[in-house]
Amino acid sequence: MLDQGHAPNVVTFNVLINALAKMRKAKEAKELLSLMIQRGEMPDVWTYNSLMDCLYRAGNIEELKEVFTSMERKGIAADVVSYNILIKGYCKHGMIGKASKIYRKMIQNGVKPDIFTLNALLEGMLLKGRMTDVAQLRRDIVVHNLTPNSCTYNILVDGLCKNGYIQEALELFEIINVSKLKLNISTYNCLIDGLSKAGRLEKALELFGRLSSEELVANVATYTILISGLCKAGKISEANKMFVDMEKSGSTPNIVTYSILIDGFCKAGEISEAYRMFVDMEKSGTTPDIVAYSILIDGLCKAGEMSEACRMFVDMEKRGSPPNEYTFGALIHGFCQINDTQTVVQLLQVMTDRGMKLNEVIEDMVMTQLLKEDNCHKYLHLLPTFPPR
Fold first, then answer.
1. Which of 271, 272, 223, 266 has the alpha carbon at shortest distance from 243?
2. Signal peptide: which range, if any (predicted)?
């Protein structure tokens, strides 16, 4: 364009900078902005907003702030979009104090916030658990005559649940339910999880039952949350049925789902079912991790099936999943139950050889076991020296 004698104007530069910004090419966009200024074309707020949005998406909060400040120095008034980008950037990086300061500055400068401003601030405040500020922001929505959108309610319900305000989240949920606004599956999951953890499993299942009428599809997180809640409530049959329904629906269980159900079967004393679930997990192509192995080994040890527990322990190591303190603790507890002090001491030696620390639970188990021995002094000198906790 320049070679052909055509001088690009501000509109041309803006289009090019915006295109580069969308391609996440912040460096090139900044270079073009510099060229624009050198050629005497004055950038406008739209130019700066494009560049700031690019920097926000790239996570360059310091550069974002510099561009915002540069815009102000040039006498270009920031608009609501400019402020929103900077506020979102600060909130995304947990810099809530700075986000609040920009929000106050925005209002002082006569720029009216929109619902996107409040959504960003609400999400940031909820992540930090600043509930007093959340309450004030909810009042600000009314003061500024703004209409909450689906995103607002999703943020609020999700944040209230994660901060333990389950009843308030549920009340807000019911208000939304009679409106035309829709909540997404993530928000349903958060509310179902909150209710489940609060012991309100029936209400959680009731919400699960509403999903189809809301034209929402339960995902792996939804099923995993409910399976976990049912297992913790001792309803292992219902949890297993939920697992079967999950597979029928086309939702694929992940390692967390399998581990929760294996743990549920172990705690219910159904070791054969736990083992079956472990085998099914492998058949499905899901590779067992240290958590899944440790859960099953613990269950086998508590059931007195030490040979199988040891076999799993060896298999675990062969597959490149090294046992942790929890795994060793499960085995040590199992051998303490059958009074095999010699093996307990050997396991302790393996732990110290691997640089593991002896936690209080294992220490108490070992000391209790040694005191049972008539010749405990025989073993005391065999105990390895562990690094300090």
1. 223
2. none
